[in-house]
């Protein structure tokens, strides 16, 4: 792995805390998404044990979860109830919750972060890692690599 650095007062600091291979045009492992997950990264939602593949989408306003994972949040405190967002599947109703998302590292350290997530059982998937409440707090870089399997997703907190 290439080490990334940022200029700091009096020298250089690590730019990222972890990195992982990202998946290009992958099938949704849950089999509920139409089409491919263009940039897929491994994450863990809340304190669930299962690691999921999520669509990394810098153009998505919110991180989103749906289906059976959304059901796990039925009795979870809601930050903003009853909101409607427009998606490629049409308008979907849900709520915003504050929970954690962990980016899973192949190299370095996993990154656990408190995030704002749009939760709706109507959302057919995939899990989406969006800008507001999540990516806006991160430093990220994508290295497409030279050969398949060499593509790396670098991540660290903005400080």
CATH superfamily: Acid Proteases
> Judging by the overall fold, what is the CATH architecture?
Beta Barrel
Sheet/helix structural class: mainly beta
CATH topology: Cathepsin D, subunit A, domain 1
The stretches of 5 or more residues where confidence is low (pLDDT under 50) are none
Major beta-sheet overview: 8 strands, mixed
Number of strands: 14
Number of helices: 1
Number of domains: 1
**Average pLDDT metric:** 87
Strand content: over 45%
This entry's quaternary arrangement is single chain
What is the CATH C-level name? Mainly Beta
Please compute the radius of gyration using only Cα atoms. Answer: 16 Å
Mass-distribution shape: globular
Tell me the distance between the termini: 23 Å
Helical proportion, percent range:
under 10%
**Run of helices and strands:** EEEEEEEHEEEEEEE
Keywords:
globular; 3% helix; 159 residues; mainly beta; 8-stranded mixed beta sheet; 4-stranded antiparallel beta sheet
How do the helices and strands line up, and which of them pair or pack?
Blueprint: E1 5-8, E2 11-14, E3 18-21, E4 23-26, E5 37-45, E6 52-56, E7 63-66, H1 67-71, E8 80-87, E9 90-103, E10 107-108, E11 111-120, E12 127-129, E13 138-143, E14 152-157
Parallel strand pairs: 6-12, 7-11
Antiparallel strand pairs: 1-2, 3-10, 3-14, 4-5, 5-6, 5-9, 8-9, 9-11, 13-14
């Amino acid at each position: 792995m290439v080490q990334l650095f940022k200029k700091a007062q009096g020298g250089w600091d690590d730019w990222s805390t972890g990195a992982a291979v990202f998946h290009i045009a992958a099938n949704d492992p849950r089999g509920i998404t139409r089409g491919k997950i263009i940039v897929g990264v491994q994450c863990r939602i809340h304190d669930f044990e299962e690691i999921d593949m999520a669509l990394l989408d810098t153009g998505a306003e919110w991180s989103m979860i749906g289906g059976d994972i959304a059901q796990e949040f039925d009795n979870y405190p809601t930050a903003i109830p009853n909101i409607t967002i427009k998606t490629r599947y049409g308008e979907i109703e849900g709520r915003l919750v504050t929970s954690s998302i962990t980016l899973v590292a192949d190299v370095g350290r996993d990154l656990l972060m408190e995030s704002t997530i749009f939760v709706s059982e109507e959302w057919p998937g995939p899990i989406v890692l969006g800008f507001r409440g999540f990516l806006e707090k991160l430093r990220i870089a994508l290295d497409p690599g030279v050969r398949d399997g060499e593509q790396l997703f670098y991540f660290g907190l903005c400080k």
